[in-house]
Design brief:
The complex is a heterodimer of chains A (784) and B (164). Chain A is 67% helix and 10% strand. Chain A has helices spanning 35-41, 45-48, 63-74, 120-136, 146-154, 158-182, 186-225, 240-278, 297-313, 334-340, 384-401, 416-447, 461-603, 608-726, 737-743, 752-769, 775-783, and strands at 20-25, 30-33, 79-86, 92-104, 107-116, 282-286, 292-295, 348-354, 357-367, 373-382. In chain B, 29% of the residues are buried. The chains are: A alpha+beta (784), B mainly beta (164).
Chain lengths: 784, 164
Amino acid sequence: MKVNMPVTENEVMMKDGTILVTRTNLKGVITYANDAFVEISGFSYDELIGKNHNMVRHPDMPAVAFQDLWESVKALRPWSQLVKNRTKSGDYYWVEAHVTPVYKQGVPVEYLSVRYAPSRAQVNEADTFYRELNGRRATTIRPVGLAKVIKAIKEISINKKAGMIAGAFLLPNIFLMKQFYDAQQLLPLAIVALLSTLACILGYRLVRDVTGSLGKATNMCYQMTDNNFRNKTDIDRNDLIGDFNRALYGMQVKLNADMAYMKQTGSESLRIKQALDNVSSCVMVANTNLEIIYMNDTVKSMFKNAEKDIQQQLPNFDADKLLGANIDQFHKNPAHQRGMVPNLQGTLTSELVIGSRHMNFVANPVLDESGSRIGTVVEWLDRTHEVKIEKEIENLVEGVKTGNLSARIEMADKDGFFEKLSQGINELTDGIEGVFSDINNTMHSMATGDLSNKITNEYEGVYDDCKGSINATIDKLADTVGQIRESADFINNSSQEIASGNNNLSERVEAQAASLEETASSMEELTSTVKNNADNAQQANQVASSARELAEKGGTVVISAVNAMAEINESSNKIAEIIGVIDEIAFQTNLLALNASVEAARAGEQGRGFSVVATEVRNLAQRSAAAARESKELIQTSIQRVRTGTEFVNETGVSLNEIVGGVKKVGDIISEIAAASIEQSQGIEQVNQAVSEMDEITQQNAALAEEASAASVSMSDQSTNMINLLQFFSFNGAPSPVNRAVDQQAPPPVSPKPTLHRMNKSQAKDMVGKSFVETSEDDEWDEF
Amino acid sequence: MANDAMGNQSNMSGQYLTFDLAGEMYGVEILKVQEIRGWEKVRNIPNAPDYIKGALNLRGEVVPIIDLRVRFAMENREFTPVTVVIILCVESEQGTNVIGVVADAVSDVLDIKLADIKEKPNLGSKIDTRFMRGIYVYKHNMIMLLNVDKLLNPDEFEGLPSLL
């Protein structure tokens, strides 16, 4: 027995729904394998065809299993078992294998093997079973011993079984009938005999019916395996056998229809193959292992033509041995293609350069109805000559692109489309060369400043437009240059005026800066003065405060004085009263003295002395009265004076109060002055700061004015330069204002504008005295 | 010389009480003076002449008081603290009557020699000058010496007797 080594432990799983089909002849040599089988086996189709089927056998399979297979099929019986197969690389895969002989005219001609994907439970059971068989070196996979006997009993034919059943049934009946006969009970005997006979007849008919129907059905099945689908059977019976016949008949009709469909599909495929054989495109088909399984005539002749060129690079290439060969041979790096082509989902377009041949190939995947990959169709195109012409045209176009217009395409080896194309390209190049030569000529003249050289050749279309544009450009340029010359002249004059004006401005700004600096220092002095003022006001405020206090004290003194005066007045009044009393007393005394005199006189000579006394008393009294009168007058005067003094003191008090109020007001005013001085001081500081900023800004202005002055001077220089540059251009009959401008290069009067300015200012001043009717002059003035 | 002669002629002198009335000095014989009193309010006497100020109770004796200003038709004047009432003893045919006169003030008691008394001016017969005794010149002032009896003769009073 053949042992295929080596093996690995890798299991390749069959895809669900796929069927592996092979055909072998009666010797077991493979005559056909479907793509699924080729794919899973790992061998190529060519490697499989003509080889014995045992090349895919796995060493784990017991030999007795295959022995049983051969015994079965040689006995013309189908065989079904789980089988472990080996791939080319040593991996293994499990299949549920069905092998059946195929008949032609009732004679077996070959064996058909069909394999399905097994379930894992089946695989495990079979694996265990085969390990056990290998372990005990069994000679058969069939049941042996008692199992074999039971199996043999089970498989006894229906006729034999029916005979046995009849015998078993009849023996007791015959025994019963003999009993009845012996007992001369004829009626029961007759009934039993009748029933037994009836039962035997019915049983016989039943068995014959079943076996006859089965025989017909079997015959019909064999007819169908031999592609004969027009078998008659009884489909009108209403029993179980009728059902069986109808099912079988339905199957026959379905198979016949499928067969017709298959034939149609086959003929369609054949038609397409014929068509492909005869198309002018080069078409080649490969299976999933990238082996070439079809080539049409065109591709064959194409490869035959190119064989020598290809052999330069691929020495093993043989155009006659392509069919069945792997397309790897077209590639220097087959692994790349291996990776790419089987996974191809859409169209793959590629170019190959083999030897000196340029090949285009277009690969498309071929899919079956379920969308799985069954192969690849490849179209080839030999583009070698085309590529050569393309290269030539590309070189020319590249030359034209890079400005080389002298090259032309060789016309000798061109025909057809390429001839016309090459001729067109040459003419195109001629045209472009002429146009560019003219443009170049004119532009070169422009570059040297000559604006009189225009394009005179006649052109059409865009070239004519271009010619027109260039000529218009030259005209416009000449015009523009003329205008620029005038403008430059004007700018030159203006810039010099601006320069002098900027100089003036710069000087004025500097003067302004100096004035501002003086202002700033004045402001600082003013600040210190105001600060002094504030301090003085503060001191004045303090002085006013103390003055107010003193005035208030004076007020209290005045009040005391008034009080003292009042007291003096009171005392004086009392004195006056006292004096009055004295005066009264003096008066009374006088009266008494007079009365005494009167009495003395009456007394006559006796009263003479008394009279003298009375006279003395009267004199005293009179002196007293006089003294009292004088005192009274004095006191009256004193009282009068005290009253006047009181009034004065009161007036003083009022005045002092007014003074206090006044001093208070003075104090308030001085405080306000102090506060105002402080605010003033702050204000002045701000003003000072502002003046400093103004000073800074003015200095920046001065710097800017200087820069502007410098810039305007350089602008003036630039404009002079520009005028010099513009001299470069020359054009037809144009007057050259440049010369005039250049002649005037001596600086123009420096400050005509300021003169005008002053004049207008004086005019404006004059106009103040007159009227403002003519405002236009004012506006003009304002613009300066 | 003349004075000496007159002095020799009548060497006797009399004392006169002088008093002031409306700035003029008047004098009365001191012996006619009973008493000098300060002014005090008097009991008015109805239906008496306006120069009779009223009556004064002088230690039980009713004394009529005469305002000399009014009597002499002088400008009337308020009484002052120095206004005095001079109680005079008037001798008439009916006997002695005590009558008070109001003077602005008493001045002095003068010893006047009779010779020094000038005659009253002669003003004709129509003008009554009976109440004047004479004029005494004292320190450039003319002192009119009054004849109390004539001046204060109750007969001369109108309505007075009925009162009395």
